[in-house]
Amino acid sequence: MGLFWLKAPAALLLCGALLGAGFPQPDAKRMLGTWVLTDNDNVPFNLILRADGSSLTVIGKRHPDLGEPQRMTRNQLLETGSWQAWGNGIRSTYRDGWTDTIQLGPAGLVQWSWKPGASLNGGPSNHGKAVQLTRPISAWVGAYKLQPTQPEKPPYLAVLTSSGMAFNNIDQVADGSWSLRDNGSVMIKWTSGWRSLIKPPSSGIPAPNQTFSVQHWRPGVPISEPASATRSGTRL
Asked: What residues make up the domain containing 202?
Protein backbone atom coordinates (compact mmCIF):
# COMPACT_ATOMS: atom_id res chain seq x y z
CA MET A 1 0.00 0.00 0.00
CA GLY A 2 1.98 3.12 -0.92
CA LEU A 3 3.14 6.16 -2.88
CA PHE A 4 6.65 5.54 -4.17
CA TRP A 5 8.55 2.52 -5.36
CA LEU A 6 12.21 2.64 -4.31
CA LYS A 7 15.26 0.87 -5.68
CA ALA A 8 16.33 -1.83 -3.25
CA PRO A 9 19.68 -0.28 -2.12
CA ALA A 10 18.09 3.09 -1.35
CA ALA A 11 15.13 1.48 0.37
CA LEU A 12 17.34 -0.70 2.55
CA LEU A 13 19.52 2.25 3.50
CA LEU A 14 16.63 4.44 4.56
CA CYS A 15 14.83 1.54 6.22
CA GLY A 16 17.90 0.80 8.30
CA ALA A 17 18.17 4.43 9.32
CA LEU A 18 14.56 4.53 10.47
CA LEU A 19 14.94 1.38 12.52
CA GLY A 20 18.14 2.61 14.13
CA ALA A 21 18.62 4.78 17.16
CA GLY A 22 19.16 8.06 15.31
CA PHE A 23 15.73 9.47 16.13
CA PRO A 24 13.73 9.82 19.34
CA GLN A 25 11.55 6.84 20.16
CA PRO A 26 7.88 7.94 19.90
CA ASP A 27 5.51 7.17 22.73
CA ALA A 28 3.37 4.30 21.47
CA LYS A 29 0.36 5.64 23.35
CA ARG A 30 0.55 8.84 21.31
CA MET A 31 0.22 6.76 18.17
CA LEU A 32 -3.19 5.45 19.15
CA GLY A 33 -6.04 6.65 16.99
CA THR A 34 -6.73 7.07 13.30
CA TRP A 35 -4.13 7.45 10.56
CA VAL A 36 -4.18 8.13 6.83
CA LEU A 37 -1.85 5.92 4.79
CA THR A 38 -1.79 5.15 1.06
CA ASP A 39 -2.35 1.90 -0.81
CA ASN A 40 -0.82 0.46 -4.00
CA ASP A 41 -3.22 2.42 -6.20
CA ASN A 42 -2.23 5.70 -4.51
CA VAL A 43 -5.62 5.79 -2.75
CA PRO A 44 -5.70 6.86 0.92
CA PHE A 45 -6.92 4.39 3.50
CA ASN A 46 -7.36 4.60 7.27
CA LEU A 47 -5.45 2.63 9.88
CA ILE A 48 -6.94 2.59 13.37
CA LEU A 49 -4.65 1.65 16.29
CA ARG A 50 -6.39 0.72 19.55
CA ALA A 51 -5.15 0.54 23.13
CA ASP A 52 -5.78 -3.22 23.35
CA GLY A 53 -3.20 -3.87 20.63
CA SER A 54 -5.71 -4.47 17.85
CA SER A 55 -5.59 -2.67 14.52
CA LEU A 56 -8.13 -2.18 11.77
CA THR A 57 -8.02 -0.69 8.30
CA VAL A 58 -10.91 0.70 6.27
CA ILE A 59 -10.65 1.79 2.67
CA GLY A 60 -12.90 3.78 0.41
CA LYS A 61 -12.48 3.27 -3.30
CA ARG A 62 -13.98 1.50 -6.27
CA HIS A 63 -11.58 -1.39 -6.75
CA PRO A 64 -10.47 -1.49 -10.40
CA ASP A 65 -10.89 -5.27 -10.60
CA LEU A 66 -14.63 -5.05 -9.92
CA GLY A 67 -15.57 -3.88 -13.43
CA GLU A 68 -19.32 -3.40 -13.58
CA PRO A 69 -21.02 -2.37 -10.30
CA GLN A 70 -21.37 -5.32 -7.97
CA ARG A 71 -21.39 -5.98 -4.26
CA MET A 72 -18.07 -5.55 -2.54
CA THR A 73 -16.68 -8.16 -0.19
CA ARG A 74 -15.72 -7.68 3.42
CA ASN A 75 -12.04 -8.10 2.55
CA GLN A 76 -12.26 -5.23 0.07
CA LEU A 77 -13.46 -2.87 2.80
CA LEU A 78 -11.90 -4.04 6.04
CA GLU A 79 -8.80 -5.74 7.38
CA THR A 80 -8.17 -6.61 11.02
CA GLY A 81 -4.86 -7.27 12.72
CA SER A 82 -2.66 -6.32 15.64
CA TRP A 83 0.06 -3.76 16.25
CA GLN A 84 3.14 -3.37 18.42
CA ALA A 85 5.99 -0.93 18.97
CA TRP A 86 8.69 -1.47 16.33
CA GLY A 87 11.83 0.49 15.54
CA ASN A 88 11.11 4.20 15.67
CA GLY A 89 7.36 3.65 15.54
CA ILE A 90 4.85 0.82 15.22
CA ARG A 91 4.19 -2.25 13.08
CA SER A 92 0.69 -3.45 12.20
CA THR A 93 0.23 -6.95 10.76
CA TYR A 94 -2.95 -8.36 9.20
CA ARG A 95 -4.51 -11.72 8.51
CA ASP A 96 -3.96 -11.38 4.77
CA GLY A 97 -0.19 -11.14 5.27
CA TRP A 98 0.33 -7.42 4.66
CA THR A 99 2.38 -5.38 7.13
CA ASP A 100 2.09 -1.61 7.58
CA THR A 101 4.56 0.34 9.68
CA ILE A 102 4.68 3.95 10.78
CA GLN A 103 8.20 5.20 11.44
CA LEU A 104 9.67 8.49 12.64
CA GLY A 105 12.22 9.62 10.08
CA PRO A 106 14.16 12.79 9.16
CA ALA A 107 11.10 14.34 7.50
CA GLY A 108 8.62 13.23 10.15
CA LEU A 109 6.28 10.24 10.21
CA VAL A 110 6.34 7.95 7.20
CA GLN A 111 4.62 4.74 6.13
CA TRP A 112 6.44 1.58 5.08
CA SER A 113 4.44 -1.43 3.87
CA TRP A 114 5.44 -4.99 2.99
CA LYS A 115 3.31 -7.30 0.86
CA PRO A 116 2.50 -10.86 1.99
CA GLY A 117 5.58 -13.08 2.04
CA ALA A 118 8.09 -10.21 1.84
CA SER A 119 10.89 -10.11 4.39
CA LEU A 120 10.92 -7.13 6.73
CA ASN A 121 14.71 -7.24 6.44
CA GLY A 122 14.39 -6.19 2.82
CA GLY A 123 13.17 -2.99 1.27
CA PRO A 124 9.45 -2.20 1.71
CA SER A 125 7.00 -2.93 -1.07
CA ASN A 126 5.92 0.71 -0.97
CA HIS A 127 6.24 3.84 1.10
CA GLY A 128 4.55 7.19 1.69
CA LYS A 129 3.64 9.84 4.23
CA ALA A 130 1.73 8.92 7.41
CA VAL A 131 -0.74 11.46 8.78
CA GLN A 132 -2.43 11.16 12.18
CA LEU A 133 -5.95 12.60 12.36
CA THR A 134 -6.78 14.79 15.33
CA ARG A 135 -10.22 16.28 14.60
CA PRO A 136 -12.95 14.86 16.89
CA ILE A 137 -15.03 13.78 13.87
CA SER A 138 -12.25 11.34 12.91
CA ALA A 139 -13.31 9.17 15.87
CA TRP A 140 -16.26 8.06 13.70
CA VAL A 141 -13.95 6.66 11.01
CA GLY A 142 -14.18 2.87 11.14
CA ALA A 143 -16.33 -0.17 10.42
CA TYR A 144 -19.90 -0.88 11.51
CA LYS A 145 -22.19 -3.91 11.30
CA LEU A 146 -25.72 -2.73 10.51
CA GLN A 147 -29.03 -4.56 10.49
CA PRO A 148 -30.79 -3.96 7.15
CA THR A 149 -34.41 -2.96 6.66
CA GLN A 150 -35.28 -6.41 5.35
CA PRO A 151 -35.45 -8.69 8.44
CA GLU A 152 -34.67 -11.80 6.40
CA LYS A 153 -31.25 -10.45 5.37
CA PRO A 154 -28.10 -10.78 7.51
CA PRO A 155 -26.24 -7.78 8.91
CA TYR A 156 -24.06 -5.93 6.42
CA LEU A 157 -20.80 -4.05 6.73
CA ALA A 158 -20.55 -0.27 6.38
CA VAL A 159 -17.26 1.63 6.57
CA LEU A 160 -16.78 5.35 7.09
CA THR A 161 -13.52 6.81 5.79
CA SER A 162 -11.78 10.08 6.57
CA SER A 163 -12.38 11.25 2.99
CA GLY A 164 -16.09 11.51 3.77
CA MET A 165 -16.84 8.43 1.66
CA ALA A 166 -18.86 5.47 2.90
CA PHE A 167 -18.91 1.95 1.47
CA ASN A 168 -20.99 -1.17 2.13
CA ASN A 169 -21.24 -4.79 1.05
CA ILE A 170 -25.02 -4.95 0.57
CA ASP A 171 -25.73 -2.67 -2.42
CA GLN A 172 -24.80 -3.29 -6.04
CA VAL A 173 -23.55 0.31 -6.15
CA ALA A 174 -21.77 0.21 -2.83
CA ASP A 175 -20.58 3.75 -2.20
CA GLY A 176 -21.96 6.90 -0.63
CA SER A 177 -21.03 9.80 1.62
CA TRP A 178 -21.37 10.50 5.31
CA SER A 179 -21.56 13.62 7.47
CA LEU A 180 -21.94 14.55 11.12
CA ARG A 181 -25.21 16.25 12.05
CA ASP A 182 -25.69 18.94 14.69
CA ASN A 183 -27.23 16.48 17.14
CA GLY A 184 -24.14 14.22 17.01
CA SER A 185 -25.65 11.55 14.76
CA VAL A 186 -24.15 10.43 11.45
CA MET A 187 -26.11 10.51 8.19
CA ILE A 188 -24.99 8.19 5.40
CA LYS A 189 -26.38 8.96 1.94
CA TRP A 190 -25.92 5.90 -0.23
CA THR A 191 -25.62 6.21 -4.00
CA SER A 192 -28.35 3.55 -4.24
CA GLY A 193 -30.82 6.06 -2.79
CA TRP A 194 -31.01 4.55 0.70
CA ARG A 195 -30.20 6.76 3.69
CA SER A 196 -28.98 5.46 7.07
CA LEU A 197 -28.83 7.51 10.26
CA ILE A 198 -26.55 6.23 13.02
CA LYS A 199 -27.75 7.52 16.39
CA PRO A 200 -24.95 7.37 18.96
CA PRO A 201 -25.52 5.87 22.41
CA SER A 202 -25.79 8.15 25.42
CA SER A 203 -22.05 7.68 26.04
CA GLY A 204 -21.22 9.35 22.72
CA ILE A 205 -19.41 7.87 19.72
CA PRO A 206 -19.82 4.08 19.84
CA ALA A 207 -16.88 2.09 21.19
CA PRO A 208 -15.87 -1.25 19.62
CA ASN A 209 -18.60 -3.89 20.14
CA GLN A 210 -21.04 -1.26 21.40
CA THR A 211 -24.55 -1.24 19.89
CA PHE A 212 -26.59 1.73 18.75
CA SER A 213 -29.79 2.56 16.88
CA VAL A 214 -29.95 2.97 13.09
CA GLN A 215 -32.77 4.47 11.08
CA HIS A 216 -33.15 3.63 7.38
CA TRP A 217 -35.08 5.51 4.68
CA ARG A 218 -35.97 3.83 1.42
CA PRO A 219 -35.10 5.56 -1.87
CA GLY A 220 -37.57 8.33 -2.59
CA VAL A 221 -38.74 8.72 1.03
CA PRO A 222 -37.75 12.16 2.42
CA ILE A 223 -35.84 12.08 5.70
CA SER A 224 -38.41 14.59 7.00
CA GLU A 225 -40.84 11.66 7.08
CA PRO A 226 -40.70 8.75 9.53
CA ALA A 227 -37.93 6.25 8.84
CA SER A 228 -38.80 3.18 6.78
CA ALA A 229 -37.29 1.04 9.53
CA THR A 230 -35.36 1.34 12.77
CA ARG A 231 -32.73 -1.30 13.38
CA SER A 232 -29.60 -1.78 15.47
CA GLY A 233 -25.90 -1.65 14.66
CA THR A 234 -22.59 -2.54 16.27
CA ARG A 235 -19.18 -0.97 15.89
CA LEU A 236 -16.38 -3.34 14.88
From this structure: 137-235
Q: What is the DSSP string of 59-99?
A: E-S--GGG-SS-PPPHHHHEEEEEEEEETTEEEEEETTS-E
For the chain, what is the largest distance between any 2 Cα atoms, rounded to a whole number of angstroms?
A: 62
Q: Are residues 110 and 164 in the same domain?
A: no
Question: Could you tell me the sign of the dihedral formed by the alpha carbons of 181, 184, 189, 195, in that order?
Answer: negative
Last residue of a domain, one of 132, 161, 190: 132
**What is the model's pTM?**
0.87
Q: CB–CB of 49/55 below 8 Å?
A: yes
pLDDT in tens, 85-127: 998 999 999 999 999 999 998 889 999 999 999 999 999 988 8
Rounded Cα distance, 222 and 218, in Å = 9
Per the DSSP assignment, residues forming a β-bridge with 112 are 101, 127
